[in-house]
Amino acid sequence: MLTRREALTAAALGAAALVTEAPAAWAHDHAVPGVRGMDHVGITVPDIDEAVSWFEDVMGCVAPLTFGPFSGVQDLLDVDPLAVVQQITMVRCGRSANIELFHYTAPDQRSDPPKNSDWAGYHIAFYVTDIDAAVQYMVAHGAEKLAGPLPITEGPAAGQTINYFKTPFGTYVELISYPQGEAYAATAPIPLWDPRDNRP
Fold it and tell me: CB–CB of 72/55 below 8 Å?
């Protein structure tokens, strides 16, 4: 019988057949040569074991890659010369870009996460097929829910419904759904990447 981690890994990889595409149709003459798309988003967390467990146990992600520690990265990563990357763990959440979790120690390290309104503020958004069920699930699993779900009914983003949550380690996570699409797509020459195209 598979362990929970083995089952999650099998499910994630089974649902992610490799797709071979022609060169990106969205790239133009001033794009980075050879760019194909986003590989990952990196975030620094205060407790990497807690963060990895949260992404696995709440979001259903898997963690195929862990490495570190290493130092001497000030010129590579624009950090304090005494900063140490204690651990990096990459998590995969379905058919999407990976999330790279960093655990640092550094003498000048700030411990207050940015708000969404702060410079360098950020959030990670996950597409869901049923926003109401997904919101109930997040609440049942202890995620700190902000106002919502909020349906957007006017303007180019009409069709979206969103809800933000705050993780125990300070990262904002958004759930988003637009099962009938978004209004802007009716006239956009090249639409945004759409996770609905990743259906198994």
Answer: no
∠ CA 106-107-112, nearest 5°, is 75
Q: How far, in Å, CA of 7 to CA of 179, rounded?
A: 28
Condensed to tens digits (0 to 9), the pLDDT of residues 17-69 reads: 334 444 456 667 777 888 888 899 999 999 999 999 999 999 999 999 999 99
Residue 179: asked if its preceding bond is cis (omega within 30°), the reply is no
What does the pLDDT look like over 148-185, one tens digit per residue?
A: 999 999 999 999 999 999 999 999 999 999 999 999 99
DSSP SS3 for 86: strand
Identity at 62, one-letter amino acid code: V
Superfamily of domain 113-187: 2,3-Dihydroxybiphenyl 1,2-Dioxygenase, domain 1 (3.10.180.10)
Cα angle value 17/58/126 (rounded, 5°): 55
Residue 2 clears pLDDT 90, i.e. is over it: no
Identify any residues that bridge with 88 across adjacent strands, giving them in sequence order. Answer: 67, 102
Kindly report the CATH class assigned to 1-16+38-111. Answer: alpha beta
> What digits encode the pLDDT tens for the residues 13-24?
444 433 444 445
Q: Give the tens place of pLDDT for each residue, 175-197.
A: 999 999 999 999 998 889 899 88
Beta carbons within 10 angstroms of residue 42's beta carbon: 13
